[in-house]
Amino acid sequence: MGEKSVSTKTTAASRKRFLKYLLNDVEALDYMLREGMIESGVQRIGAEQEFALVDKYFKPSKNGLEILQRVNDPHFTTELARYNLEINLDPFDLDSKCFSKMERQLRSLLNKADDIAGKFNDHVILTGILPSIDIRSVQMDFMTPNPRYYALGDIIKELRGQDFELNILGVDELILAHTNILFEACNTSFQCHLQVSPEEFVDRYNWAQMISGPVMAMAANSPLLFGRQLWSETRIALFQQSIDMRSKGYHLRERQQRVSFGNDWISSVTDIYKDDIARFTLILTNMAEEDSLKKLKNGEIPTLSALRLHNGTIWKWNRPCYGVGGGVPHLRIENRYIPSGPTVIDEMANFAFWVGLMQNMPEELKGNWHNMDFEDAKENFYKACTTGIQSGMVWNGKIVATKQLVLDELVPMAREGLEKTGVDKDDIDRYLQVIRERAEVGQNGSRWMVKSFRKLKKEFGRDEAMVKLTAAMHKQRLTKKPVHTWKTADAAALRKIDMQYDCVLNVMTTDIISVQETDLVDLVASIMEWRNIRHIPVESARGELKGIITRKHIEQYNADPNRKKMAVAADIMQTKITSVEPETDVKYAMLLMIDEKISSLPVVSNGQLVGLLTDSDTVDLWDKLKNRKG
After folding, report:
1. Contact 614, 625 (CB under 8 A)
2. CA 286/CA 584 separation, integer angstroms
3. pLDDT digits (tens, 9 = 90+) for 189-198
4. Which fold has domain 12-247+257-343?
5. Alpha-carbon Rg for the chain in angstroms
6. pLDDT tens track for 110-157
7. What is the pTM of this model?
8. Are 131 and 470 in contact (CB under 8 A)?
């Protein structure tokens, strides 16, 4: 989530001062580019590994800060939620063994995380979105206590003027409102950096945009959120919506999201920053007092801290980055769309594939972006996000199946790019073989998860299937085999995974048939007969729980010779309702059903019906609770 040292209280004076430094930073960058002060002719790669932590029940852990302290390694840092950490890998010169050297370092650091997490009975999971995340995991007690995170959340909510909302349509649909930015914490990525010479930056950045679609399609690894199958790479939609600062309106004004793919090819490095400053309001400041223009006059190299902070609050999927290493300024392209996991070899193969393509941009494209259709690149990206490896790409004016495009054109192109860069042949073969075989069998992380989740749902409830899928991912990661070789998760083998049945949320039914107060009793009776249900909740037009009707109520109504003609649900429903909240202890809820002699227990949040706990849901739950390991 970017720089941690920020000012959480912005006054008019501090804002003016920061804006002055921001404008100076842009001018300073323009000057350094004109004067050839940015490092050229040198290429390096770097990466940031975000990962999730789960407890012994494969649910999000709160032990991130404690594990970070015990790891005691400067490569590790916090993320937005307590169940996420990040590893900042060292930069490596783009040379013969750079990818295998990075892989060794990454494996070593993850082994360290595995060892320390194990002392807390926790596990490390590499995935774009943790399958076992539930609505409790996005409450404030899971947020990492850092002023920047709280400030960012408050500012976004203030700018929106309303709660955060999700509305994502895929195979399933997810519509949720929430009060904080922790939806974003569901995302974990493997962010890849490539240093680029300033004179090549515009062409390379545009080319990075052009190849985003097919690279994304191959790497997709995030099809599930809260047990719903959404996009192949749901992270993209989730991130864009979870920190969208635009308020709703009834006007047609175009306003860009701060998380975006972009709207056109770029023509200069600083034009990106200038456009962002013009479009996006300042939301964070820091206490830096660096006047970059003065530093340049004094023969020093500025860090451009104001510009970098503002750039860190605009989340482009391909993001330009300025940095200083060893006193020398440089430019990088940061690939932010590649998800974490599901294994180290999968991530490194994605990285090598991307870099290989970046190193082999067709000569005829240089300086000729006006002849290319940007909307094709943007469309390819979002098609890849929604349908993944099964998508089709617009390429050279034709629609091509992504798998075929990768096999026929892009893998050979990436191989040539890595060879021209001097990457070791064994490394090229090893990483690109993963991409090639992934395309041949049509299975990336997203497809494996979808197939496995569908299979597990036939044996378990939704929450159980999410947890057992997470356990299967962890087991498979430890084999070090790439995801295209994984067999679909085996329900029988996962049956022994211990579950945490601690609250109603884990076991309630959310696919609810309900009626409204004004619905005819005849309709209510018909629905109950059609669906073979014994109890049906009654809601208001706003979704507020108003009552419940059982078969007994219907029978009493039909047996009454003085019954009201054209009676509606409100006439016969029981209005004295026993209900619980989603976080209610499941044992308490079950005992409550016994004490109250009820077979259906509504689950209510903020007055609205969100689930039902029925006697059929609890038939085997007592046995599961008694047979738990701990």
Report:
1. no
2. 42
3. 999 999 999 9
4. Creatine Kinase; Chain A, domain 2 (3.30.590)
5. 27
6. 999 999 999 999 999 999 999 999 888 888 888 888 777 777 667 666
7. 0.90
8. yes
